[in-house]
Structures are given as structure tokens and as C-alpha cells.
Amino acid sequence: MSDESSPKVLIEGRVMRIFRSLLFLPTFFLIWTDHEYSAAIALGLVTIMGWYTTFKLRYLEEEKPYYILWLSSVEGVLAFSLMITILIRNLVKHYDFPWILTVGCLFLLIRVVGHTLYGLSVVREGKILRRGSFWSKASSLAITLTLMIYVLDIEHYQQISMVICLLFMGASTAAFLYWFYRDPDHRQPLSVASQLTMSRIVLTPFFIWVFFYDNDLDYQNNKIIFKSLALFMVVGFMVTDFLDGYLARKMGEVSTLGKYLDPFSDKISNMTIFLCFMASGYAHIWMVALIYFRESSVETLRTLAATQNIVMPARQSGKWKTAIQGGGILIILVGALDPLQTIIPGWPAIWKYLPDTVMGIITAATLASGLDYFVSSKHVLQKYM
Whole-angstrom Cα distance, residue 278 to residue 288? Predict the structure, then answer.
């Protein structure tokens, strides 16, 4: 490839990968509005563009590793969020709990987190990122095809496609581990703060299981013990969110990994909770869509900053946004507890409007925070304008 064509193809590949990530967003809306065929077409376009950009970018040695790493991570988070959305939709339509789909969500989450952690450690060491193996590419294709089958709700092929998908992910993981542990330089223990951060990511799928334990879309009908457990898990998420930052500073373990992993875990846990709220009628679809748009946009902004070797720290507005989201989630989960229905006079009338009001405040605070990030990062965007 000539020096004259490299920049052109480089920009083309970047634009197409960003556009591919944005294609996921309308897919969420199409799924919840029962436009299954349109959602499947959108996923088909995502697959085609993914393979095309992989082909275009694999020869570009000058592409910055941080850009490839974070855009790939964003795409993985989007795929995981889409699978979670399908899981919740199936809970709405069917009474049986989709265990195999839940296992698929957990495996995909582990895959995304593992890829991100590995990529960060390699880039931090100044090494070249390992290109995707055959099994890695095959598992990515299997994930997308499985999502399409679940979107179309083809019941006879859902379980078998998910089993095939899990086998490919297992083969990809085995191939990677074999290669990874041949190089002792990669064996780096995680800090206590990073382990706390990762605990929120790993426990997020279990929150879905607790929230919909009785297979009833109406969370009010859930048993009090599981309502209490869901509330306890959210409190645990908030406590670990405080502790990981506190311990990292106290123990001198503040790292680039922690700066990226902490907001990543917050988005995974909070967006999952908001999707559960939407399924139970505590949040409107447009609220969750706007929140998701803000979160994915800020992550894309972090990716663009990383290509310029700029680490975007958490802004004060982001901290307020996280606090408001956490407080709002607690208010809704506490308000759904059965004892309040009888202890507080007139509570049923208050509860009728409380979830919408709280989610409206959360949505407004989230959008305001996103605007603040973009205004403060004009220097990052100027390069692409």
C-alpha cells in the first residue's frame, strides 16, 4: 500500500467502524417496536461492515493500538447489550426463563471484559496487539448470526445456534489461553481495586436473574426476598464503586486500566438495570435510548481521545450523573418493596408517578453530563472536523 493511499484507507476504516457501532443503536429500537426483520437487516449490515473493515485495517500497521482496542471494546459492549435486550424481550414474550441465553450473555460479557483487559495490558507494555485468530473471527460471526436468529424469534434454531456460539467462544478462548500463557510476561496480577471493579461486571447478569426470578414481567409481583436481594446487589455495586477508587488512591495503584475499567463497569451495571426497569414499566423506551446514546457517545469520544494518546478522566458532571443514577435506582427499588404499600398512607398514588419522575431526572442529568463532556473535549474533536 502506498503512502498516499494509507491515510485515505485509514480514515475510511475508522469512519466505517464508527458507523458500524452506530448501526447497533436503531437495532434496539427496532427490537422493542417488533420490527424483527428490519432489526435483522441492521445486524446483517453490522456483520458485513465488520468483515470489510477487518480486511481494510489489517494491513495498516500505522493504525494506533488504542483506537483499535477501544472501538473493538465498544462494539463488544454493544453486542452484549443487544443480547441482554433480547433476553429481556424473551422474558416479556415467554414465561420460561431462557437459561441458555442467560449463559450466552455471561460468556459474552466475560469475552468482552477479557479482551479489553488483555488489550490494555499489551498496549501499556508498548507491544503490538495480537491480530484476531480464525477462532476469534468465527466466534464473532457466530455471535452476530445467533443474535439475528433470536431477533427473528426462530424458536427451533435458537438453542442450537446458541450452543454453536458457545462452542466457538470456548474454542476461541482455549486458543487464546494457549498462546497467552506461553508468554510469561503477560502474567500480571490484578490489583484489589480492579478486582472490585470487575466484580460489578461479573455480577450484572445475576441481577437480571434476581429481578425476573418469578418469570413475571411485573416486578411488583416478585417475592420480597428477591426484591430485597436486588436492592442489596445495587447497594453492593455502589459500595464497590466507591471502594475501588478509594483503595486505588490509598494503595498507590491508580492506573490507566482502572480509569477506563471503572466507568465501563458502571455503564454495564446501570444500563442493565435500566433495561430491567423498561421491561417492568418503570422507564419509557425513549429514556433508556437517550441514556444509552449518551453513554455510547462518550465512550466513542474516549476512543477518539485514546487515538491521540489522551486519557479522558472522569469529570465532575460524570460523578454527579453516576450519583443521581445510583440514587434514582435505589429510590425505585426501595419504592417497589411491599411494606411501603401499607406503611405509608397514599403510597400507591405516589408510586403511580414516582418511577417516571425519577427516570426523567436521571435522563436529564445523563444528557447534561454528556453535553459537558463534548464541550470540554472540543480539542479532541477538532482533529476530525
Answer: 7
Q: What is the mean pLDDT of the chain?
A: 78
Confidence (pTM): 0.58
Name residue 293's amino acid.
F
Residue 355 belongs to domain spanning: 189-385
Q: Long-range contacts for 280-288 (Cβ within 8 Å, ≥24 apart)?
A: 280/211, 280/217, 280/218, 280/219, 281/218, 281/355, 282/219, 282/332, 282/355, 282/356, 282/359, 283/355, 283/356, 283/359, 284/356, 284/359, 285/29, 285/32, 287/359, 287/360, 287/362, 287/363
- At 141, which CATH number? 1.20.120.1760
User: What's at 65, amino acid-wise?
Assistant: P
Q: How far apart are CA 175 and CA 38, in angstroms?
A: 35
Say if CB 266 and CB 242 are below 8 A apart: no
End-to-end CA distance of the chain: 26
Residues 235 and 145 placed together within one structural domain of the fold: no
Instruction: Verify that 294 and 362 share a domain, yes or no.
Output: yes
Cα dihedral 291, 295, 301, 306, rounded to 10, equals 180
Predicted pLDDT at 355: 92
Any idea which residue has 448470526 for its cell? 145
Residues 6+ apart with CB under 8 A from 354: 331, 332, 335
The answer to whether residues 202 and 175 belong to one domain is no
CA atoms within 13 A on the CB side of 30: 18
Q: Which carries the bigger pLDDT value, residue 367 or residue 70?
A: 367
- Grid cell, residue 378, equals 472540543
**The three grid cell numbers given for residue 240, joined into one nine-digit string:** 464497590
The tens digit of pLDDT for each residue in 77-118 reads: 888 888 888 888 877 776 566 778 888 888 888 888 777 777
Q: What is the dihedral of CA 208, 289, 25, 172, to 10 degrees?
A: -20
Torsional sign, CA 287, 293, 294, 295:
positive
Q: Are residues 158 and 301 in the same domain?
A: no
Please report how the helices 285-307 and 5-32 are oriented relative to each other, as an axis angle in degrees rounded to 10: 160
Phi-psi category of residue 154: left, alpha or beta, with phi > 0 → left and psi -120 to 50 → alpha: beta
- Nearest-Å Rg of the Cα atoms of the chain is 21
Handedness of CA 257, 126, 174, 74 (dihedral sign): positive
Q: How does residue 9 score in pLDDT terms, banded at 50, 70 and 90?
A: low
Statement to judge: residues 205 and 97 lie in one domain:
no
φ, ψ (nearest 5 deg) of residue 132 = -60, 135
